[in-house]
Amino acid sequence: MSAEERDVQGRIAELWVYPVKSCAGVPLQKAGLQASGLAWDRHWMVVDAQGEFLTQRSHPRMAWIRPEIGDRHLVLHYPGLAPLQVGLQDRGPLRQARVWSDQVQAWDMGTEAARWLGQALGTDCALVRFDPAAPRQTSGRWTGGERVPVHFADSYPLMVLSQAAIDDLNQRLQAGGHEAVDARRFRPNIVIAGLEAHDEDRVEALDVQGSGQGTGQEPGGLRLRMAKPCTRCPIPDIDPVTAVQGTAVGDAMRAYRQDERVDGAITFGMHAVPLGLAPGAELAVGQALAGDWHFA
Length: 296
Fold this sequence. Notes:
CATH architecture of the largest domain: Beta Barrel
Number of strands: 19
Shape: globular
Helix content: 10-25%
CATH class of the largest domain: Mainly Beta
Distance between the termini: 23 Å
Largest sheet: 7 strands, mixed, barrel
Order of helices and strands: EEEEEEEEEEHEEHEEEHEEEE
CATH superfamily of the largest domain: PK beta-barrel domain-like
Strand order of the largest sheet: 1-13-12-17-15-14-19
Structural class: mainly beta
Mean pLDDT: 95
Number of helices: 3
């Protein structure tokens, strides 16, 4: 079956990685893809003195920490502070950290990083790096019992969102006298153009066309299997420019995005799992995607 005969067709409009969990995202034109998600995504995390992860939910100024991935360093930028450099391959003492209910082993990135983050966020905290020798796996509830690797992401390796879903929300916001928002509010890895709003909810998978690993339609082709609806916390209400939290985005979503699949929670976008990976797999802006309807 050709791509033109599929129920859904689109293309990758934006790619984002979030090297440090809950800090600003990095837009990319292409990114390596692994079983655990895009390369360097949620590879580092900020934790408090007890090892509990910190997010914008409690520390909205994390939106002002802007990561940059260089050839050899992770560089963190924050207004008024000199940039912090951390080697991409740096390892420190092992320590325990917690992501939601998962206790994980991580490398502590040292006192300089802790001091820098403390100045930025005004709290006692540290930077940790994921230790691949102590793998973390997703729940199998939404993947037919299969558990897949994930770093410090909340749940699954990828988050997929249609641009039309953002556009539809913006029409509702502007009708209520509020400003439009962009994809940064929702922290997707992949923004897809060409779909209808929330088509990502209604397909089982999206096959990647022209990925260099087949067309995505034959066995072994690269595909993105939709796993779990992405439930929404207060972070979409935090302005990524000002770090000020409002209520308009959450109020608008509550009016039409209560999802019976997750007991009426508000969802926006889909968590996804990559399948058919080959060495050197990549995603790139402009790649075509195609899928077929799937209704449970």
